[in-house]
Automatic annotation (TrEMBL):
Short name of one Pfam family: CBM_2
GO biological process: polysaccharide catabolic process
Domain CBM2: 270-380
Keywords of the record: Carbohydrate metabolism, Glycosidase, Hydrolase, Polysaccharide degradation, Signal
Superkingdom of the organism of origin: Bacteria
Listed name of the protein: CBM2 domain-containing protein
Stretches with biased composition (Low complexity): 41-60
Molecular-function GO terms, alphabetical: hydrolase activity, hydrolyzing O-glycosyl compounds; polysaccharide binding
Xref: SUPFAM superfamilies: Carbohydrate-binding domain, Fibronectin type III
Region (Disordered), start-end ranges: 41-76
Signal peptide, first to last residue: 1-32
């Protein structure tokens, strides 16, 4: 990242950046202890409760846009620590944006890293060269929180203050989870998705899955395998997730692509497979009577058992008198031909022929449609 990409604000805001860093140092550095993570994670969704007077402004700001890395100025002395500079496009609000909150992904979830009032932020206390993932929300005076940005990842660069020594041991994160596949477990009531396993030099210990809410990315599961499910959702509603892989040393991978999953209703009601059949209907008539041959073809791959053919004879004067190769019956204009014991199975791709003789009082139109075991057949 070129320093040319620093916002002009950095130059003017050098003192601000220093103050931000100082504030971050005065507070426990975000990498200080896992206890701090746990304490933050235990609060659940990391969105503070609204503090404004309710009922006045209930419209949240728009989500911040175009998050990018804005490396802060190089240190002028001392032992450097890792810092990340972030910039983004300002949110808008019906009343006014009062500030932003930057959340950093940790092995125990997202923790609030900074709460700047401008569209730049420095997150300090990081390890130089390691990649960190963030999201940002905007706030208004009434405490409304915008939707979170998509996860944004960038490497910590050399900053300006002394930091704790970098970690030792395994510092190589797992590879990024890929191959996100939504609704891969369709029988599950709720959402499901699958992915391709990450790899790691020491071993992937699991995954952390996050779901987007109106105001945050919240942790929703820590699967060990390569699929995730979540119940207690609104059937038919879409949910957006991403995930990271973790190793035993707490190294986090880059975030996966976002995956949008529609919550399913679970075990679907059984719907019989569509009947795949073709009918050739051939008839000839004479004064007061007619005959018809019906060729039934099973277009499917599997045998059709105990078939029943139904069709409608359009003219009220068309009456079935006698038939062959099926048990024939008629009710009004509705004609049914049921399988005989000896031809009750139509193998996949096979055909059989049935037929009948009838009486006429007028015209002899062909039936307009046929069903076989309830499924509509095509006309041959
Ligand atoms: Ca507002
Ligand atoms: Ca590793």
């Amino acid at each position: 990242m070129s320093r040319l990409s620093w916002p002009a604000a950095w130059t003017a805001a050098g003192a601000v950046a220093a103050a931000l860093l100082a504030a971050n140092i005065a507070a426990p550095p975000v990498l200080a202890t896992s206890v701090a993570y746990a304490a933050s994670a235990s609060t659940g969704e990391p969105t503070p409760q609204p503090t404004g007077s309710p009922g006045t402004d209930t419209t949240p700001p728009t989500a911040p846009g175009e998050v990018r890395a804005c490396p802060p100025p190089l240190p002028t002395g001392g032992t450097p620590q890792g810092v990340v500079g972030l910039c983004w496009t300002a949110s808008t609000d019906d009343v006014g944006v009062t500030g932003y909150e930057v959340y950093r992904l940790t092995p125990d979830g997202f923790v609030k890293a900074t709460a700047p009032t401008s569209t730049v932020s420095v997150v300090s206390g990081l390890t130089i060269g390691r990649t960190y993932t963030f999201y940002i929300v905007a706030k208004d005076a009434a405490g409304n929180t915008s939707r979170p940005t998509a996860p944004f990842s960038t490497s910590a660069v050399t900053g300006m203050y002394v930091s704790p020594s970098p970690g030792t041991g395994d510092t190589t994160p797992p590879t990024r989870p890929t191959g996100m596949q939504a609704n891969c477990l369709p029988d599950f009531k709720g959402t499901s998705f699958c992915w391709t396993a990450s790899t790691d030099d020491a071993g992937v210990t699991g995954y952390d899955v996050y779901r987007r809410t109106d105001t945050a990315w919240i942790p929703v599961g820590t699967p060990i395998g390569t699929h995730f499910t979540e119940g207690n959702l609104v059937t038919g509603q879409s949910y957006v997730y991403f995930m990271v892989a973790q190793d035993a040393a707490g190294n986090l991978s880059l975030p996966s692509d976002l995956v949008t999953v529609t919550a399913s209703g679970g075990y679907p009601t059984y719907t019989p497979p569509p009947v795949s059949c073709e009918i050739e209907y051939t008839s000839w008539s004479w004064s007061g009577g007619f005959s018809a041959n019906v060729k039934i073809t099973n277009l499917g791959q599997t045998p059709m058992n105990n078939w029943t053919l139904r069709f409608v004879l359009p003219d009220a004067g068309q009456k079935v008198a006698s038939g062959w190769s099926a048990t024939w019956s008629q009710s009004g204009k509705d004609v049914t031909a049921a399988a005989m014991p000896w031809n009750s199975v139509i193998q996949g791709g096979a055909s059989l022929q049935i037929g009948f003789n009838g009486t006429l009082t007028g015209a002899n139109p062909d039936p307009t449609g046929f069903t076989l075991n309830g499924g509509v057949c095509i006309r041959g």
